[in-house]
Amino acid sequence: MEQGRVREDVRLPYAYEATPPEVRVPEQARGEHTHGEPAAPRVVQRHSVRGQVLDALRAALVGGELVPGQVYSAPALGARFGVSATPVREAMQQLASEGAVEVVPNRGFRVSERGPRELAELAEVRALIEVPVMLRLARTVPAGSWCALRPLADATVAAAAVGDRASYAECDRAFHRAVLALAGNEQLVAVADDLHRRSQWPLVSNPATRRADLLADASEHTALLDALVARDLTVVQSLVREHFTGADR
Hints:
Layout: H1 49-63, E1 71-72, H2 74-81, H3 85-97, E2 101-104, E3 108-111, H4 116-140, H5 143-147, H6 150-161, H7 165-181, H8 186-199, H9 211-230, H10 233-245
Antiparallel strand pairs: 1-3, 2-3
Helix pairs in contact: 1-3, 1-7, 2-3, 4-8, 4-9, 4-10, 6-7, 6-9, 7-8, 7-9, 9-10
């Protein structure tokens, strides 16, 4: 495909109905309650089309369905979702704020082209933030808490085994969030997760990741848990640094 053309044939992983599900309001919330009984709080459930479109676009980015350097129009992507262009534009604006895409006036959004240098810089920043935290946690967190994270590590292995890059990316971030959450610092978790997400976008020179590389990356989660349980600080530090530098082989 020529540079700058709007790609109409992209296939995103999910389709969503544009109409949200019916909102049910309890009878008590409509004023139909027995005298002497307090009215129940109004329960409203909203279907976030924008949020689901954003999740699917992120999966398409990580999975290589949205190609670095290509321009995509909101109406064309909206047609694939079965929604209007509005939630697609809103989701793309969020991705633009994260640096995943660039706005192309009157045309759509271009997927950002990233090189090895940017990936190396992200790995360096992640290491500066997470290595000291994990070393501190290794000294203080009981073994039982680390064992509770085994299912999350196993999920990364399962996703890697089938070569599902998008699912692996989600499982990978879920594991790291759970580890860092033990520090009790929500701001730390949010910042680290944003850096982690950015590091998962494909490089322009290598948009696809081999299943073997995903499996190697996933195995490091299991090895890291073993080191954390054993409180082996030397191995923890080595594994975390290696994990970051090899995250997008």
